[in-house]
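Q: I'm writing a short methods note and want an example of a predicted protein-small molecule complex. Could you take the sequence and the SMILES for zinc ion and return the bound structure as tokens? Please keep the output block clean; save any remarks for afterwards.
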Amino acid sequence: MAKPIPICPRCGQPATQTLTPKGRKSRCEPCGLWSNGSKPLRDEAGHQAHGARVRARQNAHRFFDPLWKEGLVDREIAYTLLAQELGIERDACHMSLMEAEIARRVPRAVKAIRASLLKG
Ligand SMILES: [Zn+2]
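A: Understood, no commentary inside the block.
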């Protein structure tokens, strides 16, 4: 089944899709926004910000996941502690929802959580 064609967030028109050796690309020519496949269209700054956010989230996972994978606490409690440490709502405390600036604070927060868990 064909994936939906992304709609340009600037002009509201559907993107033009082309097949390249690297796969399908979506593009809004008038606005200069593009994406790979059917992902949301972004401009250059948007792609860079998105890349930074993805890297920060991956890094956050690398620090955070061992907390519950090692069995120090269960996963749900680990997220609750992380939310407290970051000063954000528990519901907002998912790596996939975090802005880069919050995700970048995760490694230090995990350090603090580990320290307080070890203290008992
Ligand atoms: Zn457009």
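A: Remarks, as requested: Residues 48-119 form one domain. The beta strands are 16-20, 23-28, 33-36.
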